[in-house]
């Protein structure tokens, strides 16, 4: 099977909000984190993508959090993953040039997810948006709070702090060509205690592009709360990978109607 050559086009009207699976890899191995730390190995990403495809997931985003550069091995790995995805799929991690963007799209991914590149090379966002359309460029915004810096944006998979505030950075991402935002609360990541609905509401209020909420989902009630706060779509990782109080690895995916009922 070869990667799909034509991009998926999101329908103008959908009966239910998108529930997106967020998978995290570290040097190609599927892991789950808690507050962007302590990565725990949970399996092979290709097998996970197959299972979510079988469960008819709405959409899937694959995020590589390792520090290795985007290279031929990464290209081969993501191409193999894309061949197993029978749903819209996005990729982020180590993308620094327009050629990296082309490789990802040509491998069968509908969208690229950019985070650090937005800070280091905003021209790349504009170039990708011009070449593939704004709908193919997702701006990833990772947010944390602490007593010293307050609430601020972090880059490099949460390793590097910035002085940017969420609302200001969200508007910047939209202005330079992002067609969608992936808004992640680092403090809620992997906790399954619920989204930061206050953050979601404030960011969604200052942009016109869709905001995807990520970080903290653990139940259908959490999904509904994020949508009520202003998110256009909801994403989750641990909720779809773990089961029970002991966090046993069990791939699962809810009925999309649970997000609205």
Structure write-up:
With 261 residues, the chain is an alpha/beta fold. It has one domain (18-259): Aldolase class I (TIM Barrel), CATH 3.20.20. It has helices spanning 45-54, 72-82, 98-106, 116-120, 122-132, 166-175, 197-204, 220-229, 238-241, and strands at residues 18-26, 29-34, 37-43, 59-64, 89-92, 111-114, 137-146, 150-155, 160-161, 180-185, 211-214, 233-236, 242-243, 248-249. The chain has an eight-stranded parallel barrel, surrounded by six helices. β4 (59-64), α2 (72-82) and β5 form a beta-alpha-beta unit. The longest helix is centred in the first third of the chain and has 11 residues, at 72-82. It is globular, with a radius of gyration of 17 Å. The chain starts with 17 loop residues before the first strand and ends in a 12-residue tail after the last strand.
Brief characterization of the structure:
Helix content is 30%, strand content 28%.
